[in-house]
Design goal:
The chain is of the alpha+beta class. The protein has 2 domains: about 1-180 and about 340-400, FAD/NAD(P)-binding domain; about 185-335, Orthogonal Bundle (Helicase, Ruva Protein, domain 3), CATH 1.10.8.100. It has helices at about 1-10, 45-50, 60-65, 65-75, 95-110, 165-170, 190-195, 230-245, 260-275, 280-285, 295-300, 315-325, 380-400, and strands at about 15, 40, 80, 85-90, 110-115, 120-125, 130-135, 140, 145-150, 175-180, 185-190, 200-210, 210-225, 225-230, 250-255, 325-335, 340-345, 365. The protein is elongated and about 85 Å long.
Length: about 400
């Protein structure tokens, strides 16, 4: 939508071919229905969130970045606000309305939208775009430029089923193997049913791969019927997906008291046991843990629930301290790609001009968004990349026609 609108605003005749009944269905469900649009972060830190491929986005971000996006959204009736973690959300506007507002802007910009129109083939002649062929018919649409912005393979019910990878590969582009990114993890533990639905805030999660610490994140996470999810888990998932692919041993360790080091935590526990000598161990744990987690703690530490605080031994206190700093379990896998927030992999960036988003292989073919081999942490970064690359692709395509 961003690419189409920008090309039309530059005076070009634009047809947006949409596979589904409406454009922007995936945008309409992002951020749990709240739509985390971007992040108020300096550009260098923003780029680092995309890993080794971040540098590819530098030209697009220098042309259209956070301030420009917020200004654009405000101009079409979507005010924004900054929340925790510098995440930027629409102010009082739910995600579905953001999608509808963008669609109306596209139409007002002069774009013709044709829905239920999946493309089966990109037509080229002598290494240059000639048009596209629609799926399920012999309909050919001639065009001087084509912008491929079909998304990845996550949330297929919104239309992103990897079509763009197939279309690009058919005309010679290399596709980096698509994998789930920002995806919930599955864990192997007998106590999972007891803590299904539990959310932990201000904890540190560390991933250990083959007994070596690989990464850690601080923030919020949740337990589900199959495993774990939430912002810090989704951020860690990329490294886990790669480890699962290579059959490596993966452990997830949760520090439930990251604000306290071992010495400080021990003093805190000692104080609690002295302050409440007649209180049961179970009730003392209520001051340390969410209620859902207490049965798991008792089961794993094997300390009697009714044992008075005055009778807790030094060794038992040590076990409790170590458990609070290292509540761990085995990661058995990850959820399928259709449950991932975004796809890792896609069109090889070495075959795309970063300053224009044009293909280096096919003249007048452009790319935007998740179809490219770019993906970042959760927090609004990926949507900003989609808007920025779409903006650049739209104006670049319009300029080639001049």
């Amino acid at each position: 939508m961003m690419a189409a609108g920008q090309a039309a605003l530059h005076g070009k005749s634009v047809l947006l071919l949409e596979k589904m009944q409406h454009p922007g269905l995936k945008l309409g469900i992002t951020g749990k229905g709240r739509c985390n649009l971007t992040n108020q972060t300096e550009i260098e830190d923003f780029l680092r969130r995309f890993g080794k491929n971040g540098r590819f986005l530098k030209p697009a971000f220098h042309i259209f970045f956070v301030d420009q996006l917020r200004s654009f959204l405000s101009s079409i009736g979507i005010p924004t606000k900054i929340e925790r973690g510098n995440r930027i959300f629409p102010d009082g506007v739910p995600a579905p309305r953001v999608s509808r507002t963008l669609k109306n802007w596209v139409i007002d910009s002069g774009v013709i939208i044709k829905t239920h129109s999946p493309v089966s083939k990109i037509l080229i002649n002598n290494g240059k775009i000639e048009g596209v062929k629609l799926a399920g018919s012999e309909t050919v649409i001639h065009a001087n430029n084509v912008i491929l912005a079909t998304g990845g393979t996550s949330y297929p019910r919104t239309g992103s089923t990897g079509d763009g990878y197939l279309l690009a590969a058919e005309i010679g582009h290399r596709i980096i193997d698509p994998q789930p990114s920002l995806v919930p993890l599955e864990i192997d533990t007998p106590f999972l049913a007891k803590i299904d639905g539990l959310t932990l805030k201000n904890v540190t999660a560390s991933v250990w791969i083959n007994s070596k610490k690989a990464a850690r994140e601080f923030g919020e996470m949740s337990f589900t019927e199959f495993g774990v999810t939430g912002p810090i888990i989704l951020t860690l998932s990329k490294i886990v997906v790669e480890a699962v692919k290579h059959n490596k041993s993966i452990q997830l360790s949760i520090d439930l008291k990251p604000a306290l080091d071992h010495r400080q935590l021990d003093r805190r526990l000692l104080r609690d046991f002295h302050q409440f000598p007649n209180m049961s161990f179970h009730n003392i744990l209520k001051k340390l843990l969410p209620s859902q987690l207490i049965p798991v703690c008792l089961q794993q530490l094997k300390i009697p629930a009714q044992k008075p605080g005055s009778q807790i031994t030094g060794e038992e206190r040590k076990h409790l301290r170590l458990w609070l700093k290292d509540f761990h379990f085995t990661v058995s896998g990850h959820r399928p790609i259709d449950e991932a927030i975004i796809t890792s992999g896609g069109i090889d960036l070495q075959e795309v001009h970063s300053k224009t988003m044009e293909s280096r292989i096919i003249k007048n073919l452009y790319f935007a968004g998740e179809v490219l081999d770019i993906d970042a942490d959760t927090g609004g970064y990926n949507l900003q990349a989609a808007f920025s690359t779409g903006f650049l692709a739209g104006i670049s395509a319009s300029q080639t026609l001049n």
